[in-house]
Amino acid sequence: MTGHVLEGIGELARGVPPESTQQAVGYPSLFLLVVLGSLVPVVPTGAVVSSAAVVAIHQSVPPLSLLVVFGVASFAAFLGDIALYWLGRRGLSSKNGSRWLAQLQGRAAPERLAQARTRLDEHGVAVLVLSRLIPAGRIPVMLACLLSHLPMRRFARGDAPAVLAWSGAYALIGILGGSLFTRPWEGVAAAIALTVLLSTAPALWRRTRARREAHGEATG
């Protein structure tokens, strides 16, 4: 029985695609997933970048692989942001709006949008960098830029350093997660868990604080 199990494990190990094949499939997949996640909030793009970084540090030339991951993720995020912003601008100029603009407005709470507009007035496009690093901070700031009729060129100038900072931060999470484990899948699991925790913790904290405030007002 044990011999059959070991034989099966050996077959799985031999079935792992070579590094060149992993790269040929992995980099285009990374690009497509990040672009898709920038347009539609169904793909956890931060976890995708962190997972790609984990795999990269287990390649034969980790610095080069990490640099490619960083470059592909940054370029894909930039293209996704620019495309979404362009679609939003079309919605503003259209008489009936657009589903993309409606989607942005539906994903930005009024109080967060008001805060984003205030920060945009105070700091300009530099606020885009912080919005990319804060979980769920990208959409309110992008919508604030749209409602302020910020030109595409100016938005792009602010978004470029924002996506670089975002890619670097999540790649660093992947490096830390991957360096703690010898097996890539363990590092990927750790990186995904950490990115999910970072993305959900602020929302949970806001809900907890709102409930406490509501409870205090009720008892007061």
UniProtKB/TrEMBL annotation:
Membrane topology type: Multi-pass membrane protein
The UniProt record lists the keyword Transmembrane helix: yes
Primary location recorded for the protein, binned into one broad class: membrane
Location in the cell: Cell membrane
Pfam families to which the protein is assigned, alphabetical: VTT_dom
InterPro entries: DedA-like, VTT_dom
UniProtKB keywords: Cell membrane, Membrane, Transmembrane, Transmembrane helix
Domain VTT intervals: 65-175
Transmembrane segments: 30-57, 64-87, 162-181, 187-205
The name this protein goes by in its record: DedA family protein
Similarity remark: Belongs to the DedA family.
Coiled coil (residue ranges): none
